[in-house]
Design brief:
This protein has seven helices and 17 strands. It is α/β, with parallel strands linked by helices.
Amino acid sequence: MLAFSIKWDDSILFQLSIFGLLVLFGSFGFSYINFIGITLDRETPDQVYAKEPFDIQLNLNNSKRAVDSFFIMIFDSLHHSDQKGSFLYSYVPSKETMTQKFKSMIPRRGEYYNFTINLASHFPFGFFSHSIECSYESPITVFPSPMDQVTMLNILKVRNGQASASLAGDKVTVGDFRGLSPFYPGASIKMIHWPASIRTGELVIREMEASHLEASVLIVHSLYPSRGSKKNSKSFEKLLQFIVSYSLYSSSISTEFILAASFFDWEPIYVKPGTDDLLKVLTLLASAKEKREGDATPLKNVCDSFQYYKNVAAISNVPKENWEYEVGSEFPSILCSDMTGAVE
């Protein structure tokens, strides 16, 4: 109403009105041009571990030939911070790419898709706003986080007060000769290759290729003999973390092992060092679901098929007093352990 009461012959007010209209329409034009030619690319790893930080890189590109862009705001769903996942690019030169790196973390294992990024521009003066939502369908596979190595080894080594050194990672001392390696603490003196040690001036030991029956075997199950037994999701997650830790540890010391798990329908997976077997196991564990069993027969059948292997362990997320008799009474050589001491 005030605008209609102003006399248009007032030169100062007229000039201010014209200036205001120019600013308004100019802002619209600038805000539109500011967002033209702006594209965004995100670089993320294909596989990560749960609860472990990983690097992400954003590449903001201005493809315009001669016009710079200003004040581009980015909201990334993978960026968790006090700023609510926002980045501000105050200046993006023409024909250039601006990069921004940050760390992110995904707390739970699984397959993750459709991470979004919102680009917004309020330049200039905030009169007009332009925004674009970018969706990235490239999945990120999140493996279970590895269990602490000391905890993992303790779970394997303790059995009625006795240690299972082979399952915990002792080097193979029988099999086909593979080569020589430097002596390490804990290696058997019998494995020292004395002629080569004298020649080189340092202790070296024989590396042996494990025979088929020398591979360690992990039998993983969730046997609940009692109908009243309650599921424990935390202990199952710890069980998966144990398998991840053992897989990484076996790979680091070049030891082959076999994984037979109820949640993989008891299909044995042979994990050989230096192959893609490790990645296969980790990928399967990312989406594994507990398979609650009430019948011990499948477990016994698997134990029977591996009873002639030298190093066999039955591991469960169920307290072993509920199922140890089912295994130990028929297969006394099999180590039995659970996640009771590993659950926080």
